[in-house]
Amino acid sequence: MFKRKYFTLIALLLVVALALAGCGGGGSEEKKDAAPDAASEVIKIGVYEPLTGTNAAGGEMTVEGIKLANQLFPEVLGKKVELVIVDNKSEKQEAANAVERLVSKDKVNVIIGSYGSSLSMAGGPIAKDAGIPVIGCSPTNPAVTLGNDYYFRVCFIDPFQGTVMANFAYETLGAKKAAIIQDVQQDYSVGLNNYFEKAFKQLAGEDAIVAKVNYNTGDKDFSSQLTAIKDKNPDVIFAPGNFTESGILVEKARELGINVPILGGDTWEAEEFLNRVKNTKDIYFSTHFDATQPVTEMSKKFKEEYEKAYAGKQVNAFGALGFDAYILALDAITRANSDDPKAIRDALAATKDFEGATGVITLDTHGDATKTAIIKKVADGQFVYEGKVDPK
């Protein structure tokens, strides 16, 4: 009787152990399962972008460019390329969740994203731990790639962008005093303002920043900040931030009689911003692309194909950056002659003189692109090319 009970118990334990093994319940087992299937006939490119929430317009433009590139170049190494697009909802936790899903459930070979430096920084560590390379389209904060050798980007970064706008304010607009307005909840806004402040002080002197005021994402009333700035009588205002809050801020500044030039960064290239400020003069911002000034043969191709695919929409920088991120991913897979994520990472790190729609891209030791910046202004209800600045 004892022996019978004993063998029954052993059999039950074996059944339970086999069932648990089948579920892959251990942490180390999950990490192993995160690797893409090497025998698959499909190469998966994950995309995590904000398609809802405060940054949705930027994410949608970016995804349009990625989809367009996928339509034009649907295969690599003889395999079909499948896009797996996840909405990060403009929230940091959702961005982290999106990357976790892409690496663990969808088992992508490479990831593209995200619009917004904060969202990119939320997803970066997860991709690094899983060994999946990521190509950022427009996150310009240096911290996105700092300490993460699996994160790359096709856009220039804030030290360059902030310096470009400081030089433009001082040399082109003749400004000697500047005021700064920043969204303290956005790493993008805070970082870009810091680089502008440093560069402008070097040009105009330590006392050249006459005011620096803050607001939070989602604010809709900027009367107190603008009134404080007006009293300081600056020659220019530098106020990069989300296109929604920035549009309201610029509109309010003009209502209060503040008529000095107002400068921003690349997030301002959005219809939502333009709709608020299209009748306003002296609005300038840095960006990555201008359809009237093609810098490569790929620039021309992107413009032509975008206008055919999205009739009635303005060709924009975020679409071009999404386009570039996708074709750079395929270029890296081709150079690696492999869809293995580690091999793709190594090929990305070796990128030099890659011809994209937004310019010729070389990735430095941090994975950041060195490339030309475009300056645009608002005129006649449109974004208009003002000039360009090459990296030194």
UniProtKB/TrEMBL annotation:
InterPro entries: BCAA_transport (IPR051010), Leu-bd (IPR028081), Peripla_BP_I (IPR028082). The keyword Signal applies. It holds the Pfam family Peripla_BP_6. Residues 1-21 form the signal peptide. Residues 43-379 form the Leucine-binding protein domain. Gene3D superfamilies: 3.40.50.2300. It comes from the Bacteria. Keywords: Signal. Belongs to the leucine-binding protein family. This is Branched-chain amino acid ABC transporter substrate-binding protein. It comes from Desulforamulus ferrireducens. The lineage of its organism: Bacteria, Bacillati, Bacillota, Clostridia, Eubacteriales.
